[in-house]
Specification:
alpha/beta; five-stranded parallel β-sheet; Rossmann fold; 160 residues; elongated; 6 helices; 5 strands
Length: 160
């Protein structure tokens, strides 16, 4: 198979954006992520998170729900409504545990959610699963683009 310019992306260390307005929670989640081969990028509110995502989209987002300026629900909606970022998996991390809150998280487009206090094993398991799914989805997208290019070349060769 011919290699493309995106080959560097195939083997890159995944980036996880950790969004929480509470410094202790941010530090705890980043400490948990030391057990995952990834680069953790912190954001202290939803607006900062959206700026980071626009500049360099991460492979996964851990998103607090209750934040000043913009809630995690709103941040998630914006991520999922933007075609450039809609495929980024979002795991909402929340102290809220009422059914209505879970329903609201799902309605905003979250891929998964965890309740606080976060269980480290559960967090790491879900992160690894989401990163694996993201990697496979990206690989499928590249394969389909490659096959489309081969098809175009074959059609051009036929018409010559």
């Amino acid at each position: 198979m011919n290699r493309t310019k995106n080959d560097k992306e195939w083997d890159k260390t995944p980036t996880i954006l950790v969004v929480d307005d509470n410094q202790q929670n941010l530090e705890l989640l980043q400490a948990y992520l030391e057990d995952v081969d990834c680069q953790a990028v912190p954001a202290r509110d939803g607006l900062e998170a959206l700026e980071i995502i626009a500049k360099d989209p991460p492979d996964l987002i851990l998103l607090d729900v209750m934040m000043p300026k913009m809630s995690g629900f709103e941040v998630c909606k914006r991520i999922k409504n933007d075609p450039k970022t809609s495929d980024i998996p979002v795991i909402m991390v929340t102290a809220l545990n009422e059914f209505g809150d879970i329903e609201r998280a799902i309605d905003s487009g979250t891929d998964d959610f965890l309740s606080k206090p976060v269980n480290k094993l559960e967090l790491l398991t879900r992160i690894k699963t989401m990163l694996k799914l993201k990697h496979l989805s990206d690989k499928l997208e590249r394969t389909l683009a490659y096959l489309s290019e081969i098809e175009k070349q074959a059609q051009m060769a036929k018409s010559d």
